[in-house]
Amino acid sequence: MSVQREIEKYLRRTEMTATRFGRLAVGDPRLVKDLRNGREPRAKMVARIQAFLADQGDAR
Predict the structure, then answer these.
(1) Contact, 31 vs 52, CB < 8 A?
(2) pTM
């Protein structure tokens, strides 16, 4: 599953705003908007996002 799909599922499940997610996960409130507009994250960014999602396991 792509990291963008994982984020979208997480946002729906938790009802978290996209800007809050980006700020908490990687310090970039525009992250989700940019991904939706075609931004391709590098491997290091993907790893940070996946680590954030794993840490939020109880909310998944």
Answers:
(1) no
(2) 0.89
Q: Reduce the secondary structure of 1-60 to three states and give it as a string.
A: CCHHHHHHHHHHHHCCCHHHHHHHHHCCCCHHHHHHCCCCCCHHHHHHHHHHHHHCHHHC
pLDDT digits (tens, 9 = 90+) for 2-59: 999 999 999 999 999 999 999 999 999 999 999 999 999 999 999 999 999 999 975 5
Query: What is the tally of structural domains in the chain?
Result: 1
Residues making up the chain, counted from first to last:
60
Domain hosting 32: range is 3-59
